[in-house]
Write a structure and sequence with these properties.
Elements (H helix, E strand, L loop, with lengths): L1 E7 L2 E7 L7 H13 L4 E8 L5 H16 L3 E5 L3 H10 L6 E3 L2 H15 L1
Parallel strand pairs: 2-3, 3-4, 4-5
Antiparallel strand pairs: 1-2
Helix pairs in contact: 1-2
Length: 118
């Protein structure tokens, strides 16, 4: 698994390449926790290049999203496809995590949420 980090409109964007599973989900958790320690409470996770994600990866995303909500932040997911989309559907994760077609739409959603609370 390779993780790329960037930002747009003060939103942290984490792009993952490769499988997310029990063996490397902690690496993703550590990056998300680091963002929160740095007071970055708006995060988009791009899963476009993730062919497989098990329950530990999904659990990591959901846990981060609930932690971020404590700080009035949020986590959005984008570009979910294939077996990852199937796992999201089967586990009901779409009712917990907001999933967007593109990174741009996910970022825009967070910016709009921020502006509506200001």
């Amino acid at each position: 698994m390779i993780i790329h980090e960037k930002s747009s409109h003060q939103v942290a964007i984490i792009t993952i390449e490769g499988e997310v599973d029990l063996y490397n989900a902690k690496e993703l958790k550590d990056i998300l926790d680091d963002k929160m320690r740095k007071h970055q409470y708006e995060i988009v996770v791009n899963l476009e290049k993730v062919p497989f994600m098990d329950s530990s990866g999904i659990g990591t995303l959901v846990t981060a999203m609930y932690k971020l909500k404590k700080y009035h932040g949020n986590l959005k997911v984008c570009s979910v496809h294939g077996s990852v989309a199937k796992v999201f559907k089967l586990t009901g994760m779409e009712s917990h995590l907001e999933v967007f077609d593109s990174e741009e739409k996910a970022v825009l959603s967070l910016v709009e949420e921020r502006e509506s609370t200001d």
